[in-house]
Amino acid sequence: MDDSLIDSSELSLDRRSVLPGTGFFYPNSLDEDRSEERAKAAIDGAEAVVVTDSDADGLGCVALIRERYDAALDVEPFLDAINARLNDGDDSDETAVETDDGDDSPVGLIAAGPHSLTESLEYVATYAEPGTAVYVCDIAPDSYDAVADPLETIRERDDRVSWYDHHQWPADVADAVRDIGVDLVVGDSDKECSTDVTLRSLGYDFDEQFTELAAVTRDHDLWINDDPRSKDLADYAFWTDAEEYAAVVGAYGASLPQPVEAYISHRRVEKEQLIAKAVDRAAYKSVGPWTVGVTYGRCSQNEVADELQAAGADAAVIVKPSGSASIRGGEGFESAHLVARQVNGGGHPKAAGCKPDIYDDMMDYAYHWTTKGETTKRVILQAFERVAEEHAADEADAADETDTTTAGDE
After folding, report:
1. Which of these, 5, 10, 4, 16, lies nearest to 321 by C-alpha position?
2. Same domain, 239 and 323
3. Dmax of the chain from CA atoms?
4. 244 and 327 within one domain
5. Residue among 350, 301, 338 nearest 321 (CA)
6. Is residue 403 in a domain?
7. Do 171 and 42 belong to one domain?
8. What is the pLDDT of residues 205-241, one digit of tens each?
9. Could you give the CA distance from residue 219 to residue 233 in angstroms, rounded to a whole number?
10. CA 117 → CA 120, 123, 195, 197, distances in Å?
11. What is the model's pLDDT at position 99?
12. Does position 405 have pLDDT exceeding 60, yes or no?
């Protein structure tokens, strides 16, 4: 295939907003080989290994753990690479090219996600030397069975296995992880981000810069949005390589250096344009007691969700060209995780993600792009309807119990 067909950087904004990025078209078989090579290199000779989500919260955990081990990478090569991207006029929305700084941290980083967690743990189980400290941060497994084999292998070999998170954990999954001897600490998702949990769990006297980093990360991750720097952290983590982000915030904390600020400003021009495209496409549906704003596009889902909720939506659904979707709630809707669980996902009561299992071949994806996510929207709205029915049934049961109690009192 001609590379230009999957290179979205030269497309018009309209077309770019409805198609996935180049990485989507990279075959899983090749991507898995590359992921294993990178994981093996990160684990080789490491004193500790961190398996983490690659957003600002997960990578904030990495910065803390590397500080604890005095294992931060030199930040200067990364700043040089940022300046080079600016000088080249990098307008792409692909993740920044990884930087080879000529050295590896003794704390290895394996960037993962909910759907690659098992695979990432298998890499650690296969390649880590006995005695390696292992940390899992900012990810919750869908079930214990999904992680049991590699996690038990790691725990049998290594005395220190820690898991720091703030997502919603089913009690049986948390109990099973703790029962094999993992130090699992799950923070209150309404009060703490995973960086907060890591900060208080490591038993280390961190400088104020890292306490501030946790606070600013929390400001974005919990949708508080009182500190404008938290938006910078979130955008930067999304746009750049995991190692670069961990190195920069490890060196500077939440007050990012000038080259990074310049890079963020440069990238935000197109970001705002893509947000506007997604907001303009939105439709609003009544489902049970809720108004659900539904849209499609390659965009920043948090800002789009804010716009839809400002327009009157209790919940927002942003369907992405890759086939996944983000579900956002607020004071009027706190069941995002329940909706997501019905369509191959999960998350928090006010923020969740999913990818419905409806894509059998490229024709399904072609239909997805040309209809701007029609099938995915329908499947997720049906999940909202089921959750609404469950809520109505729960309220009816509660009312019956109240009536019965009142009658008994009389």
Report:
1. 16
2. no
3. 80
4. no
5. 301
6. no
7. yes
8. 999 999 999 999 999 999 899 999 999 999 999 999 9
9. 10
10. 5, 10, 18, 19
11. 44
12. no
Report pLDDT for 402.
Answer: 65
CA pair distance 38, 109, nearest whole angstrom: 9
pTM: 0.80
CB atoms within 10 A of CB 24: 14
List, as one string, the DSSP characters of 278-311. Answer: HHHT-EEEEETTEEEEEEESSS-HHHHHHHHHHT
Give me the residues paired with residue 318 across strands.
295, 326
Structure tokens at 230: 């938290």
Q: Look-up: residue for tokens 């290199």?
A: 41
Task: For the chain, give the percent of residues with pLDDT over 90.
Answer: 80
CATH number at residue 368: 3.10.310.40
Q: Give the range of the structural domain holding residue 391, as residue numbers without chain letter.
A: 281-397
Contacts of 340 (CB under 8 A, 6+ apart): 327, 346, 347, 352, 353, 354, 383
Res 406 pLDDT > 70: no
CA distances from 171 to 117, 137, 140, 168, 351 (A): 19, 18, 12, 9, 20
Edge-to-edge strands of the sheet including 133-137?
A: 107-112, 48-53, 133-137, 161-165, 183-186
Last residue of a domain, one of 249, 272, 295: 272
Which are the contacts of 36, defined by CB distance < 8 A and separation ≥ 6?
Answer: 123
Q: Which residue has the higher pLDDT, 395 or 210?
A: 210
Judged by DSSP in three states, 238 sits in helix
- Chosen domain end from 272, 299, 314: 272
Strand partners, 283: 294
Residue 253 CB coordination number (10 Å): 21
The DSSP string of 140-160 is --S-STTTHHHHHHHHHH-S-
What pLDDT score does 95 carry?
Answer: 44
What would the pLDDT profile of 291-350 be if each residue is shown by its tens digit? 999 999 999 898 999 999 999 999 999 999 999 999 999 889 999 999 999 999 988 899
